[in-house]
Amino acid sequence: MKDNNNVINGGKLKPEFDQNRANFYVKFIKAYEQEGIKIWGLTVQNEPMAKQRWESCIYTAEEERDFVKNYLGPTLQKQGLGSKKLIIWDHNRDLLYKRASIKG
């Protein structure tokens, strides 16, 4: 599903799988909540600019924005999960404004 054909070492999710990924978030939330574990929010990707030796996926600010705007947000809304909080760049809060201010 990633352009490097590897779950580790960064790489980007291929755009044709954006809806699949949004659907997975819904499936995850509903499964947890069915077990009585309430989910108040989620992050799109942990450390979205980190190429790691473990599972990682790279997202630029624009890609993350577009995924939330075009896939994740609408999918959560359609599935009755629109009240969930969506968090970006949660690991470097001191740089959050800079990342969120990307033009494009």
Which terms would index this structure?
3 helices, 2 strands, 104 residues, mainly alpha, two-stranded parallel ribbon
Question: What does this entry look like structurally?
Answer:
The protein has helices spanning 18-34, 61-78, 96-100; strands spanning 41-43, 85-87. The chain has 104 residues and is mostly helical. The protein has one domain. A two-stranded parallel sheet has the order 1-2. α2 links the parallel β1 and β2 (85-87). The chain is globular, with a radius of gyration of 14 Å.
What topology does this entry show?
Layout: H1 18-34, E1 41-43, H2 61-78, E2 85-87, H3 96-100
Parallel strand pairs: 1-2
Helix pairs in contact: 1-2
Please give the alpha-carbon distance between the first and last residues: 25 Å
Mean pLDDT: 88
Low-confidence stretches: none
Q: Strand fraction band?
A: 5-15%
**What is the domain tally?**
1
Number of discrete helical segments: 3
* Radius of gyration from the alpha-carbon trace, in angstroms: 14 Å
**How are the strands of the largest sheet arranged?**
1-2
| N-to-C SSE string, H for helix and E for strand | HEHEH
Shape descriptor reads globular
How many beta strands in the DSSP annotation?
Answer: 2
Kindly name the structural category: mainly alpha
DSSP helix fraction: 25-40%
Q: Major β-sheet, in short?
A: 2 strands, parallel
